[in-house]
Amino acid sequence: MLKGQCGYGWIGYDIYCYKLEAQELPWNNADVECENKGGNLASITNRWENNFIAHLIAKDFNACIANPCQHGRCVNKDGGYKCICSFGWTGQNCQLDINECTRNPCQHGRCVNNDGGYKCTCSLGWTGRNCQQDINECTRNPCQHGRCVNNDGGYKCTCSPGWTEQNCHQAGGFISGWWEYGEHRYKLFTDEVTWDQANTRCKKQGANLASINSREENVFIADLIKNGLQT
């Protein structure tokens, strides 16, 4: 019996290699013969090894009888066996757990390696086995007084005039004749004037004519005009 890669004439079992010699020798002579071949006389340590050696001697050897494949299927072969490992396992006897997290399977979350697999703990707004599916947050109507726009991993509310905060749930956007939206305040005048007159009026108020920079801001101003809000 020797440990390591099995050469010609040796039969592998677990992590050791065995060789059956037909010649009968005294124990001392047999021990020397084994040492000359780089091994030792077999020392049986469990019943599976005992069964293996018994079948080896009987020339009716089936290496799979000892169930050497810890997490897989055993296929008997001439001179040994081969393990076909289950998903998540590797090694000669399928005894080594593969760390699935090294390939970063969780697209938007944290990976936890388990025996024979892994589990993803998804970040907020994501779902699926690999946290690859965006949750449409707008389906639960989070924007109480406004329009919901779904984003990757979250959502954004475009509040109707007079409402503020993340979910458009806070009233009080109207302050001293001005409507708050984002970082700015807006004031609506209903009388028609030229651009220069309108610009002058805004300057006197310490402000500027509205310059629309986003779709959300455009929706806010459109709602402001539609509802006819004014000071």
From TrEMBL:
Gene3D superfamilies: Laminin (2.10.25.10), Mannose-Binding Protein A, subunit A (3.10.100.10)
GO biological process: Notch signaling pathway
PROSITE patterns documented for this protein: ASX_HYDROXYL, C_TYPE_LECTIN_2, EGF_1, EGF_2, EGF_3, EGF_CA
Disulfide bonding pattern of the chain: C64-C74, C85-C94, C101-C111, C122-C131, C138-C148, C159-C168
UniProt cross-references to InterPro entries, sorted A to Z: C-type_lectin-like, C-type_lectin-like/link_sf, CTDL_fold, EGF, EGF-like_Ca-bd_dom, EGF-type_Asp/Asn_hydroxyl_site, EGF_Ca-bd_CS, Growth_fac_rcpt_cys_sf
Keywords: Disulfide bond, EGF-like domain, Repeat
Domain named C-type lectin: residues: 13-133
GO MF terms held by the record: calcium ion binding; Notch binding
Domain EGF-like: 60-95, 97-132, 134-169
Protein name: Neurogenic locus notch homolog protein 1-like
